[in-house]
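1st attempt posting a full record on here, be nice pls
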Amino acid sequence: MDLATAPPIRASSGIDRSMPFPRLNFITHDPMEADYRPAVDATGRHVIFERTPRGGGVTTLFITSIGAPHGAEPFIHDLAGTHATTGPSQTRPDWCWATGHVALNVAASDRNPLHVMIAEPCGIPLGNVPGSTRWIYPTWSSDGTQLVVMNGIGAGHPRTSLVSPNGTVVQANLNGNDANGRAMYGGFASPRPGNPSLIAYAGQPNAPGWSGASPAGYDQDRNYVFLNATSAATFTSAPLEPDASITQFDKSHQGRAPSWSPDGNHLAFESNRIDGRHYAIFLVNVSVASKPVRVTDVTYAQHAKFFPDGRSLIVTAFQTPGHGPRSIAQLDVSAFL
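the predicted structure (as tokens):
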């Protein structure tokens, strides 16, 4: 769908903000499909995303061109001789702007253990990453030589690992401990451009009662966005928002799925901190330690990633405020940078 004719969602009135929210320009808008978790290429013209039939079924990856007259098409092409397990479940794509390669998760079904696969930008599989069972949300380093993954979620204690496409684990745990010396759980990570060991991630400390479970375990709805730091190969983590408590969960700082801008100065992330139910996208200037600013209405918006120009975001959003299905949209956030 052409961006000029895509139906906008404008912010509702009566919400505390310094400027109107940017309009959502829909790239996909099919009432019979639920679209999720987009990734954009280095040209800013092509988008890969998850698609699930609204009535239920297997989730697979589709690709579309922004402004193209034709609709989306299946992304992965199963070719003989590729020696890759390609699904049928295909999720969580990330597009490397340096090489054009796409990393994604594949599984025998939406309920089976996930593996990492790498594909050409045309959708031809290059192969599965060895030993990548339960490596989730593969995200490229900016130079395309390494991946950051959420490692070990099956055990209930996920860590963020730095790995190579050949399956070598370079750093098993990028999260380390918090300021109280407690182990950090974490995933949904984004490596900072230029240094894949420095990450923003959705995390929480191993604190009794934090997750609401006994014993303490990981709860993806009780995350903050954390930033890690390293000293002599030892990692520590602290909340992106310095006033967030690390002794007990504070829903006013909830956040997850962060994504760095190309220059490494800004982070976009999703949070349900407004009403505890619906997710909105927030933007923060890390270089000046500013407070996060909300850039979408509370109508459900998730999984933001920057376009290569650093001025726009690709997101998942409801087609109608407060109502599904989910579709893929672009929004210009340059006024908030």
